[in-house]
Amino acid sequence: MTSSDVIDVHTHVVPKGWPDLAVACGGDGWPWLKVESEREAIIMIRDREFRRIDSSCWDPAVRFADMAADGVARQVVSPTPVFFGYDRPADQAVRLSRVFNDLTLTVTGGDSRLIPFCQVPLQDPAAACAELDRCLAAGHVGVEIGNHVGDRDLDDAGIVEFLQHCASVGAPVFVHPWDMPESPRLDRWMARWLTGMPAETHLSALALILGGVLDRVPPSLRLCFAHGGGSFPYWLGRADNAWERRGDLVRGRSTMPPSAYTDRFYVDSVVFSEPALRLLVDTMGEDRVVVGSDYPYPLGERPAGAVVRNASFLSESQRAKLLTANARAFLGVR
């Protein structure tokens, strides 16, 4: 396996040059970029620092250098979830999506090494479908969505409508956790990211299954969960046990136990240790794990795909699937 083959399906972008969002989209309280130098900036929410970032978020030259150093041929470039705008009125979220989707294409620049994914105003299914169609025509390959919209999870009727549209137009969907609960217990040690994100992804994978979504959307829907599917793979046996023993409460609209659906979606490999990757492959199957790094953020994996490359339990044919072939199937590219 060479660097000419490896595909990283989980990276993010923060384009520079976005306008004052209050002017461009309406409303107030939008994120804004505090530029400290040509290479450093801070994403701000009102007067609070959200995240420090650097030029790897917006400069393709920096990104290409890091890809070469990591041995990665292509990256999927997705939005940063803080900019989803799902809590906004739909008309504002439409304008927001257009701003960032158009700017993302200026970063990827039509270079085949960078595969752009768009964002959509998921709180409005019709508007989300329209923006996806606009973006696919403009050069985006797929879409990243948050794992929920307020209290609406992936089995919400409107979100299912959007997923069905994605299946009909052949757009791959990358599901990223976001908007984790806050509490005094979670506001220490980055606990919202260390425990909240895995739990959010786990919950939404269950919603997809127990809510009957995978019984209703066509198998052509290509869906991938970030961060190794969160805690879902580790607790899949518990979910099956509950489905069998407390079916009166647990089965929901699903026709089969949760483990019967693992061939219907992908998960990325950013789990950081060989034992965790072994569990992931054993649980999801060797055809359903793809390399993801969470580049360029500090909780991501560098070099990208290191655990997959070095895993002693993988055969070379399995390694080739995780590094390349599975991502091609998810993305629908050669």
TrEMBL record:
Tagged with keyword Zinc: yes
Top-level taxon of the source organism: Bacteria
The protein's Enzyme Commission number: 4.1.1.45
Keyword line: Decarboxylase, Lyase, Metal-binding, Zinc
SUPFAM superfamilies given in the database record: Metallo-dependent hydrolases (SSF51556)
Pathway of action: Secondary metabolite metabolism; quinolate metabolism
Domain Amidohydrolase-related: residue ranges: 7-332
Subunit structure: Monomer.
Family to which the UniProt record says this protein belongs: Belongs to the metallo-dependent hydrolases superfamily. ACMSD family.
Name of protein: 2-amino-3-carboxymuconate-6-semialdehyde decarboxylase
Organism: Paractinoplanes rhizophilus
